[in-house]
Write a structure and sequence with these properties.
The complex is a heterodimer of chains A (about 280) and B (about 350). Chain A is mainly alpha-helical and about 280 residues long. Chain A has helices spanning about 1-20, 20-40, 50-85, 85-90, 95-130, 135-160, 165-195, 200-205, 210-215, 220-230, 230-235, 250-275. Chain A has one domain.
Chain lengths: ~280, ~350
């Protein structure tokens, strides 16, 4: 089992080195971080500290990391099935579980290494140019970003196993992104307006806990909540007023557990579908 | 065709049925009119390396293969034939665990493909009908990857490329390969790691005559070394030339399984005797037609083609001579697989 997982993972990494994905992601994250840190503030010019950078980057990361994760994941199975290479791969002495695990492991590294390098290089450059450096918060931010990336990678792999054709898998992937970044937020806002009703009710009764719980269904909101719980500056950069008054059950541990649960459940569902797929 | 006598459990009437390579035959007793099923136990031998019992696969509501049973003996070349859409590729995919079967059992070298998937596939090399590689990798990198997946030695990859005439293309990306080159590379990949069973789906598809000869010789060579080959092909003459036994599938049902000569005998297909004369005449043709055991006589100028059973051959020769014919040459052509195939598939 291990040698198959390793071989498949290695191939995914080598493929993405060859097609320059890894270099591209590294450069993208490093340059965006540096740009946001250097030119992202309305109030002052020059390099801003890491806390400010995190606060300013969080929205960009939400968009980018989810898109990259989904793009990497959606092709993992369906593209090979489409091309015909999956038939031979699964005729070898291996199982679908091993192949899927190998692909997840390889693509996780394809996503994580360049993001870590990009953020890392930018962090070192910013750190060398500012006096107030909090690397601990920056590392938490990088870790949370990677974890969120893995959530969307596994969701992409789920889409890859769910659909028979590359084009429909692509459609499903685009819908997933829209759902978590736009549609779900509209749904819970609509539910909020429907139940809370007037601003008077909001003042007297406050934001209900169920709303806070539903908000965490989106891994993107779980990610931003996790970062804002751990990085002080982010609280003041969030446009969403609710983050100022988090309920007591909003803890870092819960956020990590939710993100990990998304990864595990998506992978289990992907494997379940992949095992039942006729090639 | 072999017959078997079965007794009606309702009225005791004895019914004669033809033995077919299917598991069950549905009958209506001619005496009492009651319906019944006769089940045949598939002949399994200890030396069967591929064993398929009652394989049934549905795609939605369409039954792609129905109750297919056959076995392939260790060390033989088994031809798997059938018209387009008959269920050949479905059967092959089931053998490799690539599809989920609705009913039946498949064993390779004693390992059940569903329960002992890895162990069963360890013995198998596969050439798919649609050969696909990773286009962004070179031929050698592709083989290295598959050797690593198999856990076999990378060293044989270069030698295999040379063997299939791809040595000079080893470091070229596969995306630029022609259909024939891909087919040869697919064959090299199939025999990587020396598998004891080779499942080849249309092995000569897309190959030029040289490529066909190369693959045909390779199949024979591998067989000589002890490999068992399961070959699905549309080129019937080729199957007849290399296969020890054949299975014919039609509309998802296995309609025949045996050697070509035995299948011909079952169908009462007679050999064709070709007699070349220095001069043909109506008298000679009439004399041949009168011989007992002669089915058909065709005349093409000075050539007479006679469809007759083996014992009548001498009588035909004597009839020609007695009628004043001067024989220049005599050849006999055994019934072709094509004829057997057409008869079994109702074409």
């Amino acid at each position: 089992m291990i040698h198959v997982v390793y071989t498949v993972a290695k191939k995914e990494i080598m493929d993405n080195i060859r097609n320059k994905w890894i270099v591209l992601i590294s450069i993208l994250f490093a340059s965006l971080t540096l740009l946001v840190s250097y030119a992202g503030s309305f109030f002052s010019s020059g390099w801003q500290d890491l806390e400010f950078t995190i606060g300013a980057m969080i929205f960009l990361v939400q968009i980018l990391i989810s898109i990259i994760g989904l793009i990497l994941g959606y092709g993992a199975v369906v593209v090979e099935v489409d091309q015909g290479s999956m038939n031979y791969l699964l005729s070898l002495p291996t199982t679908r579980r091993d192949v899927l695990l190998g692909k997840f492991l390889g693509l996780s590294l394809v996503l994580s290494i360049p993001v870590a390098i990009g953020f890392g290089v930018a962090g070192v450059i910013i750190g060398a140019n500012v006096s107030n450096v909090n690397y601990e918060e920056y590392l938490i931010f990088i870790g949370a970003s990677l974890l969120t990336g893995l959530v969307f990678l596994s969701l992409g792999m789920f889409m890859s196993c769910l659909f028979k054709k590359r084009s429909t898998a692509m459609g499903g992937t685009i819908f997933t992104w829209f759902f978590f970044s736009i549609i779900w937020r509209f749904i819970i806002r609509w539910l909020f307006n429907l139940t809370v009703g007037s601003p008077e009710n909001l003042i007297s009764e406050g934001v209900p806990n169920w709303w806070y719980a539903l908000r965490l269904f989106s891994p993107l909101d779980t990610y931003s909540t996790f970062v804002s719980l751990n990085v002080d500056a982010v609280n003041w950069n969030q446009s969403d007023m609710s983050v100022l008054f988090y309920p007591s059950f909003y803890t870092s541990e819960l956020m990590i557990a939710i993100l990990v649960m998304w990864i595990v459940l998506s992978l289990i569902a992907a494997l379940w579908l992949f095992k039942r797929k006729d090639l | 065709m072999a017959t078997r006598l079965v007794m009606c459990p309702h009225c005791g009437n004895t019914i004669s049925i033809e033995e077919k390579p299917v598991d069950k035959i549905y009958l209506i007793c001619p005496k009492c009119g009651k319906k019944g099923v006769v089940r045949f136990k598939h002949k399994e031998t200890k030396d069967s390396i591929i064993l398929v019992r009652g394989l049934t696969k549905y795609y939605n509501n369409h039954r792609a293969v129905s109750d297919v049973s056959f076995s392939v003996k260790r060390g033989e070349i088994f031809g798997f034939l059938g018209p387009n859409g008959a269920g050949k590729t479905t059967t092959i995919k089931a053998l490799l665990g690539l599809i989920h079967i609705n009913e039946g059992e498949i064993e390779i070298n004693g390992f059940n493909i569903r329960r002992k998937e890895k162990e069963a596939k360890r013995y198998v090399g596969y050439l798919p009908e649609r050969v696909a590689f990773y286009g962004n990798l070179t031929a050698l990198q592709n083989l290295y990857f598959y050797a690593d997946m198999r856990g076999s030695n990378r060293e044989e990859c270069k030698a295999l490329l040379e063997e299939f005439g791809l040595g000079e293309h080893a470091n070229k990306k596969v995306s630029g390969f022609s259909k024939g080159m891909l087919q040869r590379l697919g064959m090299a990949r199939a025999i990587l790691g020396n598998p004891s069973v080779l499942i080849l789906d249309e092995p000569t598809g897309g190959l030029d005559p040289r490529g066909v000869v190369l693959i045909r010789n390779k199949i024979k060579e591998l067989n000589k070394k002890g490999a068992t080959l399961f070959v699905s092909s549309h080129v019937l003459s080729e199957v007849q030339a290399i296969c020890d036994r054949v299975g014919i599938i039609n509309r998802g049902v296995l309609v025949a399984e045996d050697s070509v000569s035995k299948l011909s005998n079952r169908l009462n297909l007679k050999p064709k005797m070709v007699v070349d004369l220095d001069k043909s005449s109506d008298t000679i043709v009439d004399a041949v037609r009168m011989v007992e055991g002669v089915d058909k006589v065709h005349v093409y100028g000075r050539r007479i083609e006679v469809i007759c059973d083996a014992p009548s051959k001498v009588k035909v020769v004597l009839a020609v001579v007695n009628a004043g014919g001067n024989i220049l040459n005599i050849t006999t052509e055994e019934p072709s697989l094509e004829e057997v195939f057409i008869r079994y598939t109702g074409g």
